[in-house]
Specification:
This protein is 50% helix and 6% strand. With 131 residues, the chain is mainly α. A two-stranded antiparallel ribbon has the order 1-2.
Amino acid sequence: MKITARTEYGIRAMYALAKASGTGPLSMRSIASDQQIPENFLEQMLYQLRKAGLVTATRGPAGGYELARKPADISFSDIVTALEGPVAICDCIDTEGSCDRLHACPVHPVWAKIAAGLNDLLEKSTLADML
């Protein structure tokens, strides 16, 4: 299992916004430069994060992006879900009816426990934890 570049970059972009929280909007260019994220990729991610209600955008020369909530109120789960969709380590945990062996599978309870632990950790970890 590996975190995608989209998720890593998204968390780094949100970290940049969390660091600047309360100081006004950051331009996309400054976020890209500070976090070494390709601008065209960052633009796509910021669109998704804005659509999910995690960031706000202000137009104009002094415009840019800001967190929509306090850093302590934005979890890693919020960010990952906005960028990737629901966190699922395997289909049998996430998609009901995806496995014919579900009730006879010795691995399913282990995957379920791992998934629950991962989701719990992502929910409890916030941007404030990085500041």
